[in-house]
Design a protein that fits this description.
By secondary structure, the chain is α/β, with parallel strands linked by helices. The protein has helices spanning 20-28, 47-53, 61-67, 79-82, 101-110, 131-149, 178-189, 201-211, 222-231, 252-255, 306-327, 329-335, 337-340, 353-359, 366-369; strands at residues 2-5, 32-36, 56-58, 70-72, 90-93, 113-116, 170-174, 193-198, 216-219, 234-237, 263-266, 287-290, 293-296, 343-346, 349-350. The chain is built from 15 helices and 15 strands. It starts with a strand and ends with a helix.
């Protein structure tokens, strides 16, 4: 199979879909790999690293999309890239279709087969291709939130760990999954007073047992959430429903109950965000203010630490990428029901039910799609 990797063009996105090690593995399996010149530079990989691995370097994204059987990326294809997709081509990347009807329409119109990293599952019910970036984003959230809290950035001017005689920042993390756990650990490590909200009692028991009171837990009822958000200096939104739009857990009206200059960090913004006032921003202009509350809603947070993120993502995606290349996407999905969960679009048809529900589009079963 001919595997192609273009340079990411989303603003301030420095990650790359294929590491040189992944390219080397694919070539060892007998596949051809093309990488757009400069694709790996943001993550610290030179063209020469790919050439040493056996890949060929091409000049333009058009070269990749015109010839590759499978295009491997990081972020969802941008409008110009979607125009280059073609019938029968496999796209393997993050998609986040539920809050993005325009991208969904374009993918359906292209006739391509699109497999989304974020909906591939594993035997434990996890999301193995989302988890590495969730870990990175979770660890970044308190860091960028602390920056947002600085007075020069419009924040309250509160130091996360406080100082003797002055209490620490109060941080509320909504969601106790991968993002929330890592956010809570880092925020607590910075000295903040941290509470994690979740609706799963078993999960809260696990967090209490595993972290020994490093941070507190509370049940995510509407009342508890409203009370804790009102007291917080920073609120981290870390709730994910696989493949679906994120639930809106804090309304605009609730902003008036928050402390002026408090910071919101919405890690779920790729799926539409969990605050009613969230809208996607970029690393170029990451913060905006609504009703006196500072919002940090960068949609590709892990891109800020591109080398760590690229290597972590490549470690996770490589086995699936090799299966798709070795067997062809149909056989690979037929052999692995967890990879089949990643199938979102095929030949003009939507194949992921949560996306269909969010966008009001008819869906066919992915099991039926692989037989077409």
């Amino acid at each position: 199979m001919h595997i192609g990797c273009p340079t990411e063009i989303k603003p301030q996105e420095y990650r790359v879909g294929l590491t040189p090690n992944a390219a080397r593995e694919a070539i060892a399996h007998g596949h051809r790999v093309s990488v757009q010149t400069g694709a790996g530079m943001g993550a610290g990989f030179a063209d020469a690293d790919y050439v040493s691995a056996g890949a060929e370097i091409v000049e333009t994204a058009q070269d990749i999309f015109a010839s590759a059987d499978m295009v491997v990326k990081v972020k969802e294809p941008q409008a110009g890239e979607r125009k280059m997709l073609r019938e029968g081509q496999v796209l393997f990347t993050y998609l986040h279709l539920a809050p993005d009807p325009e991208q969904t329409r374009d993918l359906l119109a292209s006739g391509c087969t699109a497999i989304a990293y974020e909906t591939v599952t594993d035997a434990q019910g996890g999301l193995p291709l989302l988890a590495p970036m969730s870990e990175v984003a979770g660890k970044l959230a308190p860091q960028v939130g602390a920056w947002t809290l600085q007075k020069a950035n419009g924040g309250r001017g509160v130091l996360m760990g406080g100082v003797p005689g002055v209490g620490p920042a109060r941080v509320v993390v909504i969601g106790g999954g991968v993002v929330g756990t890592h956010a809570a650990r880092v925020a607590a490590g910075m000295g903040a007073d941290v509470t994690v909200l979740d609706r799963s009692l078993p999960r809260m028991r696990y967090l209490d047992d595993a972290f020994g009171g490093v941070f507190k837990t509370s049940f995510a009822s509407a009342g508890n959430t409203a009370e804790l958000v009102a007291e917080a200096d920073m609120v981290v939104g870390a709730v994910l429903i696989p493949g679906a739009a994120a639930p809106k857990l804090v309304t605009r009206a609730q902003l008036s109950t928050m402390k002026p200059g408090a910071a919101i960090v919405d890690v779920a913004i790729d799926q539409g965000g969990c605050f009613e006032t969230s809208r996607a921003t970029t690393h170029d202009d990451p913060i905006y203010e609504v009703d006196g509350i500072m919002h940090y809603c960068v949609a590709n947070m892990p891109g800020a630490v591109a080398r760590t993120s690229t290597i972590a993502l490549g470690n996770a995606t490589m086995p699936f990428m090799l299966a798709l290349a070795d067997k062809g996407w149909r056989q690979a999905c037929a052999d692995d029901p967890h990879l089949l969960e990643g199938l979102n679009v095929h030949a003009g048809q939507l194949t992921y039910f949560a996306v269909g529900k969010a966008l009001g589009i008819d869906v066919i079963s992915p099991g039926l799609a692989i037989k077409q």
